[in-house]
Amino acid sequence: MDLNLNAEEQQFRDELRTWLDANVPKDWAEWREKPLDETFPYLRTWQRKLHEGRWAAVSWPKEYGGRSATLMQQAIFWEEMARAQAPQMANALGLGLIGPTIIAYGTEAQKKRFIPKILSAEEIWCQGFSEPNAGSDLAGLQTEARLDGDHYVVNGQKVWTSFGTFGNWCELVVRTDANVPRHKGLTVLLVDMKSPGVDVRPLRQMTGESEFSELFFRDVRVPVENVLGRVNDGWNVAVSTLMYERGSYGARLHLLFKRSIDRLVELSRTIQRNGRPAACDPLIRQKLAQCYGEIEIMRLNQLRAFSRITATGVPGPEGSILKIFWSELNQRLQQIAQELLGPYGQLLAGDRRAVDKGIWSYGYLRTRGNTIEAGTSEVQRNIIGHFVLGLPRSY
Amino acid sequence: MEFGLNESQLLLRDNARKFFAGECPMEEVRRLMETETAYDQALWAKMVEQGYTGIIFPEEYGGVGLGKVELILLMEEAGRALLPGPLFSTVALAGSVLDATATPEQKKRYLAPICSGHARSTVAMLEAGASWHPADVQMSSASGKLTGEKLFVPDAKVADFLIVVARDGVFVVDAKAAGIEVQPMEAMDLTRKLYSVRFSGTPAERLGDAVGLARALDVATAALVAEIVGAMQRTLDLTVEYAKMRKQFGKPIGMFQAVQHQCADMYLETESARSAAYYAAWALEENAPDAAVAISIAKMYASDAGRTVGNRGIQIHGGMGFTWENDLHLYYRRAKASETALGDSTFHRERIARLVIDSTATSVQSA
Fold first, then answer.
1. For A40-76, how does the pLDDT look when each residue is reduced to its tens digit (9 = 90+)?
2. Which residues in chain A are classed under CATH 1.10.540.10?
3. Cα B38 from chain centroid?
4. Which CATH architecture has domain A7-90?
5. Among B89, B116, B143, which residue terminates a domain?
6. ipTM for the predicted complex
7. Does the residue B281 lie in any domain?
8. In Å, how far is A144's CA from the nearest CA of chain B?
9. Interface with B, mutate which of A266, A269, A296 (most B CBs under 10 A)
């Protein structure tokens, strides 16, 4: 057990820090509060720049444009990005989830065709997994693909697609065989979003914005060479993508949470409660300290899981406690912010009296989604119960 | 950066697990808890043979010279076995305080016999006010003598000497000295007996330098958190085993999500407490700037999570969980004692608040 950075990690961090110091755009603060469709070209440019420095996909193998970074180096990467207040990358799903899946399951031709443009943000990727009647029960999905010569013909509907309106390509899970057990009839297709018959409609969420879309497919023709992995082996391909989602996502959140609690501590020194600063109120102190401690434990859980994955080689079900931990913690964090801010907590970005440009009212609403997206807390607990503790499957 | 155990640490942990399973199974725990002191000389001698009583102390005093991470691995296994008797009191409490405050000459007289197994000891700190802030201690020495009463002193009856925290320093008192009266306090945990200790003009020897006391208590706190983690793991294991075996409505109850999800939460709580405990021990060992915060985070979390895991475990066991015959309540009793010992979660949250809200250094992270 040694939580000091080793020589290679130190070197990785120093090189990255130097690069970020020189390259993180200075005007990001003016852009960050704007809606995504306005900032998207900006984020594309930023990702291209990262790619030029070979920093866009550090976890990827060197031969595919990455740095073959260890999990600890990946954790360092996200911490440094957050520390430098760097913008996010435009092609988040392509880099984080879909690229690694293509590298793992794709043909040489697919890798050559798709990987470079994922890195350069020339082609933005989205994920077509959930459906109106297949959310947690993903294997129940109904979007079907029928073989017609050298094409699949796709019909159906997807929902909760992040980056749907920006997506050039989609990792789409479809049913190719309805006559076998549900998990065994699925296939993953790589679908050009410009194909005739694809319709994208933004989905307005409870925060008022549209991070997600609904996708409609009507007789969309997809060439057979765009099957990812084997036909009817789509369940394994899709699960591998979901594992990347659960494994790596929490890593980049720690510093954001850390910044939030530091800000709440700062606010507690000026906000008055019972005639004195809230920082002197015993109850507020207790709540801030609890949250502060849990944020640290989230980091430690992550590091321990990384060490375990490094030892065993694959992301495993232990990622599920990370997802539950960060999502529920984020909700508690936002609740404490609301208690601290009182009536000001409800003010939206547009109100001139809003604290911190309305991030706390936004965060309060947005974090309700945290325990639903990327696998609900209930599904995560099923995964722990069955795959970690060995209890009989409950569903 | 590597947050896993190395080979010798894994070996130590596995050996300790085997040792406690073999030498102190639950039948033995139940036998000892019915005795006056829960202490067994033969078991103690075997632990001494393993080097457990000297695990973290310098070799010049007969110790093994291992680090805090090794200490908590041992204590985690002791907690899993619900080890009765004064290992925690002697090593994690008294030994740590001696190591941090005694002069070399005093260490020869007090720490060395702990390492060699000839002496058992404990720390007497709490008084009627039951505060874990050393500043709240009222007792003072007068002409080298102590007068007053200490409460909630673990294992005092089997101690050969007691470490006493007073306003004007830390003292060591011979258990056979004049004017000492040790009375049992009847408390929930049957495996770690608590006592009141009354001093009436009792001669006491001042230990070298009280400055190290806070840090020694942090070492003891890390050890206690590790014990809690071990007990949580055992409670989780027993509960999962039961949920797989017990059938109602024709199905194992572990198939019902109301049960399964509670087991998942027990797992999350246990692993999270373990992460916090391991890091706290490492931070202490490395003298990391955030060591004190890390200790308080670990105790804050484990104090609450230990109790919660016990609650869930008993609930899932249903009627069985409410019986004397089932072992869960023995762990549950220990969890309550450990929850308040060395400061409960409220105490440690306030300590975190002092360290991070009241100071300008708001960053836990050293990197």
1. 999 999 999 999 999 999 999 999 999 999 888 988 9
2. 7-90
3. 16
4. Orthogonal Bundle (1.10)
5. B116
6. 0.95
7. yes
8. 31
9. A296
